[in-house]
Amino acid sequence: MISEVGKRPGRVFTPTPNFFTPTPNTLKLALMRSAYLEKMGIDVWVPRDRSPGDPGGSVLVDASEPEFHLCFLNYLSFGVCLSLKDDQEVISPAARRFIADIALSMSGSAQQPTLNNLKWPMSRRESSDKPGKTAEEVVLQRLESLPSLVLVFGSDTVGAIPGLAQSPTVLGGRKILTLDSIDEICMGAVGKRNLWQRLNEVRGPS
Q1: What 3-state class would DSSP assign to 94?
Q2: Nearest-CA neighbor of 160 among 185, 135, 180, 123?
Q3: Residue 121 has what pLDDT?
Q4: Residue 82, burial from CB neighbour count under 10 angstroms (0-12, 13-18, 19+)
Q5: What predicted TM-score, i.e. pTM, was given to this entire model?
Q6: Using alpha carbons only, what angle is made at residue 73 by residues 71 and 78, rounded to the nearest 5 degrees?
Q7: b/e sequence 7-16, b meaning 16+ C-beta within 10 Å
Q8: In what order do the strands lie in the sheet with 68-74?
Q9: 139 vs 11, 34, 66, 160, CA distance in Å?
């Protein structure tokens, strides 16, 4: 039998599911490119996966848009700001009991706080936040609705609030005290002791 010289077997292309869904490598590359373009003053957009139930595949989001989920608690005598996980709607029972103990020590009575969550950039589309406001403006607006002393727990929360270069500091007329996350404070007696010392300092004469 004479072989057919130069004839190669055909290649079959099989499309993979979610062909346009970004992989970790492509997303990392997109972020690197966006950082470079952002330095040049060019608006950049990167792909991000949608939720599993969304058939739209991936969406484009502003690479410079901050993403955070904050919870603001108003105990009348003081306020609290902390970060929540993306899929978390309320603070954990353990965290709430811990803050309730702080409220009891500061006011001498049990208090029921009012809660206000801010999930960004999702909140940009909510009627409570006027169109055109930046994330920083909305965060500061929420802070200004709290009492004169605000306890901010966790580095993630601190990073979402503009102007917290040092602690304690005054921001929007409120004295802000930045603290470790509640989980870190509760890991041992040292963290709790440091917390009470700092609370006593800010409760002293201004």
Answers
A1: helix
A2: 135
A3: 82
A4: buried
A5: 0.65
A6: 135
A7: eeeeeeeeee
A8: 114-120, 68-74, 79-83, 149-153, 174-179, 169-171
A9: 55, 25, 12, 8
CB 64 within 8 A of CB 38: yes
- Residues 101 and 24: their CA atoms lie apart, in Å, by 43
**What are the boundaries of each domain within the chain?**
24-62, 68-202
CB count within 10 Å of CB 69 equals 21
Q: How far is CA 63 from CA 18, 31, 73, 190, in A?
A: 22, 7, 30, 39
- Could you read off the pLDDT of 119-159 as tens digits, one per residue? 988 766 554 555 678 888 899 999 999 999 999 999 999 99
Q: How far is Cα 86 from Cα 58, in angstroms, rounded to an integer? A: 18
Q: Enter the tokens of residue 4.
A: 């057919």
Task: Quickly tell me which residue has 């709790």 as its tokens.
Answer: 192
